[in-house]
Design brief:
The chain is mainly α. The protein contains 18 helices and 12 strands. 48% of the residues lie in helices and 10% in strands. It has a 3-stranded mixed beta sheet with strand order 1-2-8, with helices on one face. A 3-stranded antiparallel beta sheet has the order 4-12-9. It has a two-stranded antiparallel ribbon with strand order 3-5.
């Protein structure tokens, strides 16, 4: 590991912040033995996403043991496409709308349990809520004992910055779930009925065929983890930023008072939707949009790009380009009001990645964040008791708020 890689590994956000003024938008982290490029120039990222089908997608060294070697997140070619065709439709449009009442009930129960005077870890609370929601979507119901075991395992592997760095750079990655948890996951999948995602996986299709238990386990873990982790972080950041901007919070409460919408319909709560978008810009839970490896020689911004080069699109740096987002470190939802923000790399906004790897659950994630924030603002008044803990730390492949970030219910 050279000096540049070391700085990136040990202090990722200060390292990235130091690159924000680099006009080139590409930084070589390593030249040998495998060249690695950090990329944030919008044109370069758009080029990478356009070439996605002609690239390999390397698994994360940290997350491979957790999600499994056959996770759909690492799949390529026809198998990856088959998974997306199967799992994307239930997470979008009208089929997702059918889940609104169940999501609203889960959110209402979670907010209702926040008693006045309670002080709680904001990231842990949002993870519990979003895990219950994705548990229902994957299995058809939330098995509390199963989800509790899942949470304990993930927290044990990724719950501290030190453990994440050890897994990533000094070991072979995090530890796989134990046989008992795997058996419980498979048992829950066996009892699932449509439209639960587990039932779709068990049914298979002509491309995937019948999944054997090991591959099914990898997909269940991938859906549970990816389906709640980053959404939880984004929700926590949104509530944190609102705590830091009391006037904006008041405007949002007024907007919610003027509608009965739960937050599900973005057109009914434009300010709330803009707040979530700005939170995702300033505090993207995923700082990188995965690793891409071109299988043939190419060019990037006019420079030769040899096959085998590891490309790392940086969401964090793309969101901090001053020519696209003036005063990029300022929290300003007005950037997203009264205009349509393009969801393209060329616009510099890519919280859910892009190309063939754009997050399957992006629509679900935005829905959940709006509904949770709307319910909290309508039913509770909270304040952050330690705003200095509002710092990001590595959590697997993503960046999450410190678990020390705490809120108190004051009314």
């Amino acid at each position: 590991m050279n000096r540049t890689e070391f700085r990136f590994a040990v202090r990722p956000l200060p390292f990235l912040d130091a690159q924000a003024s680099n006009p080139g938008g590409v930084l070589e982290l390593r030249a040998r033995p495998t060249r690695r490029l950090l990329v944030w120039h919008p044109d370069a990222i758009e080029h990478i996403f356009r070439r996605d089908r002609q690239m390999c997608h390397r698994a994360s060294r940290t997350m491979s043991p957790i999600l499994g070697s056959r996770s759909l997140l690492w799949a390529d070619g026809d198998r990856h496409l088959a998974y997306r065709r199967m799992l994307a439709p239930p997470l979008r449009g009208r089929r997702l709308a059918l889940r609104h009442p169940a999501i609203a009930d889960t959110v209402s129960a979670a907010v209702g349990a926040l008693v006045r005077g309670t002080t709680f870890s904001l990231p842990e609370w949002t993870r519990a809520v979003t895990l219950r929601i994705i548990g229902q979507i994957v299995f058809g119901e939330s098995d509390v004992e199963l989800l509790h075991g899942f949470t304990n395992w993930i927290t044990g592997e990724l719950g501290s910055r030190r453990r994440t760095l050890v897994h990533r750079y000094l070991g072979r990655g995090a530890s796989r779930s134990n046989a008992d948890l795997d058996a419980r996951l498979l048992s829950a999948a066996g009892g699932a009925r449509p439209p639960a995602l587990a039932a779709l996986l068990l049914a298979g299709d002509t491309t995937l065929g019948a999944l054997e238990d090991g591959e099914l386990r990898d997909q269940l873990v991938s859906l549970l983890f990816a389906g709640h982790e980053t959404t939880a972080s984004a929700t926590a950041w949104t509530l944190y930023w609102l705590d830091r901007h009391d006037g904006l919070r008041g405007d949002l409460v007024a907007e919610l008072a003027a509608t009965t919408d739960s937050g599900a319909d973005a057109t009914q709560v434009p300010l709330l939707h803009a707040v979530v978008q700005e939170s995702l810009r300033l505090s993207p839970p995923a700082t990188l949009a995965g690793n891409r490896v071109p299988v043939a020689d190419d060019e990037l911004l006019g420079a030769p790009l040899p096959a085998g080069t590891v490309l790392m699109p940086s969401i964090y740096l793309a969101h901090r380009q001053p020519d696209l987002f003036p005063q990029p470190r300022r929290f300003d939802p007005n950037r997203f009001l009264d205009k349509t923000v393009e969801r393209t790399a060329s616009a510099g906004y890519l919280p859910f990645g892009g190309g063939t790897r754009r997050c399957l659950g992006s629509e679900l994630a935005m829905l959940e964040i709006r509904m949770i924030v709307a319910a909290v603002l309508r039913q509770r008044r909270m304040r952050c008791v330690n705003p200095e803990a509002g710092i990001a730390q590595p959590r697997g492949h993503a960046m999450a708020p410190s678990p020390r970030l705490r809120m108190m219910v004051v009314a």
